[in-house]
Amino acid sequence: MTPDQELTAYTLRLGDNALVLGQRMLELVAAGPELEEELANANLALDYIGQARLFYSYAAEREGNGRSEDDLAFLRHEHEYRNLLLLEQPNGHFGDTIVRQVLFDAFYLLQLEALMGCSDSRLAEIAARATKEVRYHLRHSERWLLRLGDGTARSRQKVQGSLDNLWHYTGEMFSADDLDNSIQKRFDGPDLPAIEAAWNSSITAIVDTATLTLPVDRDMASGGKQGAHTEHFGYLIAEMQHLPRSYPGVTW
Amino acid sequence: MSEKEWPLYEVFIRTRSGLSHRHAGSVHAPDEQMAIDNARDTYTRRSEGVSIWVVRSDRIVASDPAETAELFEPAEDKIYRHPTFYEIPDGVENL
Question: Measured between alpha carbons, how far is A40 from A46 in angstroms, rounded to an integer?
Fold first, then answer.
């Protein structure tokens, strides 16, 4: 890949992360635990979808081969999506959702802040805009994690289970592949080891305050960045792509 | 697990700097901090505000509807208290 193509591929990855997490959060619409949290979830979901649109429309422009942002979002095959495995994990119970949100948003915020300083001005602008949204997401999910962890014995037990289960998917965020390395080198992109150190200290602080225990499991799953997904992903895109695949070109 | 409902909070939104907070509605929330978040998500989705106040509904002391007559009716025939005899200068929007 030329550096130009690499930047396009990286932009697509960012779009895939935002779209897949947005789709997951949208599944909670009409299934929230409380009316107010329902609205909060829908707001988060729409923020992610909005970010996905910015990343996809930029990637489509860079590709310049006639594919639109919708084509990128809806008409690719499973192995062509390069989102992190963490983001396609099912919503589970409310504690599972909150833990997934905290683990990812703490990383995503650091990634976006790093991208604000990258040498591609368009990507830096998108990152600057998304940063404000994600800062709020993290604040909201973090507050919930504190309340669930430091809540009742049952809520702590459940959310500790969520943390133990999802921890397995956190290593992938920091394991730099060729594309990550190249974006860092050529475009002043995110420095993943530095982000990992910052993430570790912020997650440790949150987990401590929530009176939870940091998992010791270091066996990490990977594959999302290369398009090898967990079994949950097929169902997610089947539902997401159903409409544009059944009614090609449909508008409303 | 407790089946208790979350307490109700009244929400006040200031739409712009310089204006006062206005009652916007109410939200349920487990505590004060989350009430701010819920109010933000419920009442400022369309850029309605720059500041939020929340207060637990059961902390608000309200007048008794049965006392409406003695509280409010005496003011009705004192029209000299209404500022209707002044001309409002052009360009004053928020009086």
Answer: 10
Domain boundaries of chain B, sorted by first residue: 8-85
Report how far residue A188's alpha carbon sits from residue B26's, in angstroms, rounded to the nearest whole number.
Answer: 47
ipTM: 0.76
pTM of the shown model: 0.88
Exposed / middle / buried, residue A74 (Cβ in 10 Å: 0-12, 13-18, 19+) = middle
Q: Is A36 on the interface with B (CB under 8 A)?
A: yes
Angle at A47 between CA A184 and CA B15, to 5 degrees: 125
- A43 at the B interface (CB within 8 A)? yes
Q: Are A185 and A110 in contact (CB under 8 A)?
A: no
Give the list of residues 6+ apart from residue B77 with CB closer than 8 angstroms, or none: none
- Domain assignments of chain A as residue spans, ordered by start: 3-246
We find that the CATH architecture of domain B8-85 is: Roll (3.10)
Q: List, run by run, the mean pLDDT of 10-residue segments along chain A (252 residues).
A: 95 98 95 87 95 98 95 95 97 96 98 98 97 96 96 96 97 96 97 97 97 91 95 96 91 80
The answer regarding whether domain A3-246 maps to CATH 1.20.1260.10 reads yes
Decide if A147 and B37 are in contact by the 8 Å CB cutoff.
no
Is B1 within 8 Å of A147 when comparing Cβ atoms? no
The candidate with the shortest Cα–Cα distance to A187, out of A12, A54, A7, A14, is A7
